[in-house]
Amino acid sequence: MTCYLVAKKIASCVIYETNSYSLNSLQKEHVTHHVHPNPEMVNAARKFSELQDQDHLVIQVDSSFDDALIMSQFMACISKLKNQNEFIVPRVQKHVNLFQTKELLIRNNLLIDSLPLEIIRDLQETVKLMVAAGFEKECCHIYSSCCRGFLEECLRLEELDLKEEEKVLDIMMQRWMNACYVALGILFPSERKLCQRMFFGVSPAADLSVMVVCWEFTIGLLNYANDLATGSRSLNHFRCSLRVFRTLPGLISMFDSVFSNHHSASLKNEAIEIRKRLGEAIRVIFMEMEDHIFRDLVPKVVPHDGIDLITYFVESCFNIVLEYRDTLEQIFKEYPMPMVSDREGTFSSILSIQMDRIMELLQNNLEAKSKNYTDPAFGYVFLMNNYNYIVHRATCGYETTLGSDWIKKHTTKLQQNLEHYQRTWDKVLDILKLDSNESMTPLAAAESMKENLKLFNQQFKQICSIQTTWFVFNEQLREEIETSIEKMLLPAYENFIGRFQTLIGKDAYEYNEYVMFDIEALLNNLFLGKQNGQPREGNISL
């Protein structure tokens, strides 16, 4: 006991910094004394320190000095806990940034496993001292504040913004999902286990205070999800909303394992309401797709790949539908849309009916735009590009949704537009037709053929110079178009040149600008989409 009394005298010479929690709140006064301890006092202090190292903490709370000493001991333990947390935070943040579900199942003791046993034992003992001294409320407050700071560092919710611009929304969404699973699956259970261990048999209020902190963080996470339900109507937000809608049931199921009945029930109700708002928002966005396609009838400048932006928009819709088909079907069951019968009078999946309607609107949209181009041939190439793209994408995954009949129908439309395009060459082919007028003299026939050949050279050169700047993105389709032209043009040109050479003789080469090889080479350069090495966009009349 002598060691203890001497140690008290030395301890009275030290100012204890209580960090975020002030001793003034305890309405205690502490005075600083500056003394020079003698060797006997130093030796006594050393013995007192040894007693502490052996986990023999002195429990005496009969004076204001004892209160200050206990508080300083507790704050020292909290400081050690914070220092240790600094090493844990990067590991937790790694889970938030690169979360793997399998790891979650084995890491829910992350905090306790990461803390040295010495820190845990010291906290347990000082908590007993704090509660015995009548500072239960202050102890819970300080400990829960430490917990809050740790969670803030780990989750970094202030960096999450689901209203961010489109290019980073996916990244934010993934971080939000990771943060939810890490918080509910690792951090909150670990914090509660650690708290229960620290305050076991001493203060049930501490567990409640930590649970409230975790509850507040969960509400914060749910609020981010709510932002999607009230935010943009873009396709990216549509996809992210579906991800959250699909994720929420899994999060709701985790509430019971983390929170008490009261707090779990309030969180469930909040999550269910957010999920309901998301479902309604998703349904509205889906229905607005039709309106967007219907209103987009003014043709824009066609991108160099020849695919209209509305086609890409619909394709993006379909990609989302394929990825979240089951979720969308569930949404339409929970939040019904008006039933629409299909053409055969039967009732199909609401989703399939809606997508069929969207594809029909897309077809009408493209047909209307194709008629606005100054060159009808370009309109047909435009339709072939888009129909080919749609059919190709449909056969790669949409067939289940649209059906094989739909694909056959649009494959037929693709062939029809190829035939329409071929007919745009009729004016060139008409020039090469041989005159069957037998009454015409050889000289007159030769002069007529000279004029026709000159006209052919002009028109063929003009067509090639223009259509070389057009682009057909699909190589197989481009070859098919070129082959169809060759089959029409090359035989007609060969017959014409043969007859012309018969009439003119060796002087025919003076008028013959193209040999057969030149014709083939020029046709093979069509639809490459370049002019002076740069992509060129199609012209339209508005």
Structural summary, described in words:
With 542 residues, the chain is mostly helical. The protein folds into 3 domains: 86-285, Up-down Bundle (Monooxygenase), CATH 1.20.1280.170; 296-423, no CATH class; 430-535, Up-down Bundle (Monooxygenase). Helices cover 71% and strands 1% of the residues. The chain is built from 20 helices and 2 strands. It has helices spanning 2-11, 39-53, 64-97, 101-104, 110-114, 117-132, 136-155, 166-198, 204-229, 235-258, 261-295, 309-323, 325-334, 350-370, 376-402, 404-423, 426-431, 442-467, 475-504, 516-524; strands spanning 530-531, 534-535. Strands 1-2 form a two-stranded antiparallel ribbon. Helix 7 (136-155) runs parallel beside helix 9 (204-229). The protein is elongated, with a radius of gyration of 40 Å. The protein starts with a helix and ends in a 7-residue tail after the last strand. The model is unreliable at 1-62, 340-347 and 532-542 (pLDDT under 50). Pfam families: Exo70_C. It comes from Lupinus angustifolius (Narrow-leaved blue lupine). Residues 175-524 form the Exocyst complex subunit Exo70 C-terminal domain. This is Exocyst subunit Exo70 family protein. GO terms for molecular function: phosphatidylinositol-4,5-bisphosphate binding.
